[in-house]
Amino acid sequence: MESMDTRILLGLFSLAYTVIEITAIVTAVMAVRDTRTPQGAIAWAISLVSLPFISLPLYWIFGRSKFHGYVEAMRSGEERFMKLIEEENSLPPVKKLSERRRPHAPRCSFETMADIPFTGGNALELYTDGETTFDAIFDAIEKAEINVIIQFFIVHEDGLGKRLRDLLVRKAGQGISIHFLYDEIGCHSTPEAYWQTMRDAGIEVHEFHTTRGSGNRFQLNFRNHRKIVVVDGHTAFVGGHNVGDEYLGISKKFDGWRDTHLRISGPAVLGVRISFARDWYWATRTLHDLDLSIPPSAGDAEVLPFATGPADPLETCSLMFVRAINASRKRFWIASPYFVPDSAVTKALQLAAMRGVDVRIIIPQKADHLLVYLAGFACMYELQLEGIRVYRYQEGFMHQKVFLADDELAGVGTANMDNRSFRLNFEITMLVEDVNFCNKVEAMFLNDFEHSAEVGTGEYGQKNVLQQTVIRFARLLSPIL
């Protein structure tokens, strides 16, 4: 009897293993077909076939590279978007506007990818710490007369989070229309009561619904990493800060926090509103009280809100960096907390250094995400060239996402230089063509260099054999981090 039971159990186990192995092989074929990078496709295919029990659930949670349903949802709402745009006589077509400029100018590529043009007449303010950033945001919300739209990746129910919640509840009580969109993965630890308090006050609060849509139900890959606040349709805040005390420098883990945010007033705010409206439509299937009229001019800067994400037909975030680097003739300076560039960006940086461009990279001294931090050592090793200078920021954790190309183009936003921002996250970068603003970004970088230690690209060679081995394994995992 025991022998028969054993044979039955072995038969069931054999059947289950066969089913799992077949499923893994089919999934490996899907990974080879759908994964956006050859390295990622190879990593998933090998692990799925050799370790199916471990790799299958990991792939369905973390391995997807296509965000199903978002494009289809946008198509269903596109007619409504276009009707509103035509009614408001808003932004001119990109092609028509760009034809008036040099056809090979960098801005034409940016406009084509973003599907909106640079617009002039914008006023800008650069913030380099959490206190001034949130003082400005709270002051703008306090003065709101019509509406406020808010979007963050992380919102903690701590001191800063409670201040924001209480301010919004009070403004909602004054009749201000408020729409709040948050990423449920980034806010996984935020209690439901936090959101319910705002809902009870009449605030429209929704999660992004990263698992909505065919094929997305089990995945955790696609995160809405945008940080946006827009007040009364004419003033926007975009940058690296999330809502949490650590962004004010209050942290047990780090002695300080270095981040950058940007305030924009003027016509370019329309592009930020459009980005939010598309995400809101995905999350709720409604356009809320969308206003697509162009805000009045407030300054002289030309700005393009460059929204990117996994639903784009091209890898627009990676292409944005490649185009900015390739356009540089004098310098390309960049600060990124997670520096794990893909092959295209690495080669663009190498070519820039070869043609005499001053390439400088600021990264954190301390680790925030260990695997990405370790993979960065290998990436720096791959960059070894005369003319590429690497700095590690010494005063707390550096979280800003900023670049400066020559004296004419700067980018401030939410996109890191890693695979997640390139291919998996929804991001937004404000591209600015303005000499005065670029001078301010230059001064900011120079101050950051003074608070950093120049380490060069050879840190990997200073590690022992065990450390180098761990770093190489982390680098192999970088396409799927």
What overall form do the CA principal axes indicate? globular
Number of extended strands = 17
| Rounded radius of gyration (Å) | 23 Å
Would you tell me the structural class of the helices and strands?
alpha/beta
Q: The biggest beta sheet, please?
A: 15 strands, mixed
Mean pLDDT: 84
Strand order of the main beta sheet, please?
A: 4-3-2-5-6-8-1-9-16-15-14-10-11-12-17
Q: Could you tell me the strand content as a percent range?
A: 15-25%
Q: Give the CA-CA distance, first to last residue.
A: 50 Å
Q: Gist?
A:
The protein has helices spanning 2-34, 38-50, 52-63, 70-88, 94-98, 106-114, 130-142, 159-173, 192-200, 269-284, 316-327, 343-354, 370-382, 419-424, 435-450, 465-477, and strands at 119-127, 147-152, 177-182, 204-207, 228-231, 235-239, 257-258, 261-265, 301-308, 331-335, 358-364, 388-393, 397-398, 402-405, 409-413, 427-433, 452-454. By secondary structure, the protein is α/β, with parallel strands linked by helices.
Overview of this protein structure:
The chain is of the alpha/beta class. The chain is 45% helix and 18% strand. It is built from 16 helices and 17 strands. It has helices spanning 2-34, 38-50, 52-63, 70-88, 94-98, 106-114, 130-142, 159-173, 192-200, 269-284, 316-327, 343-354, 370-382, 419-424, 435-450, 465-477, and strands at residues 119-127, 147-152, 177-182, 204-207, 228-231, 235-239, 257-258, 261-265, 301-308, 331-335, 358-364, 388-393, 397-398, 402-405, 409-413, 427-433, 452-454. Strands 4-3-2-5-6-8-1-9-16-15-14-10-11-12-17 form a 15-stranded mixed sheet, sandwiched between helices. Strand 10 (331-335), helix 12 (343-354) and strand 11 form a beta-alpha-beta unit.
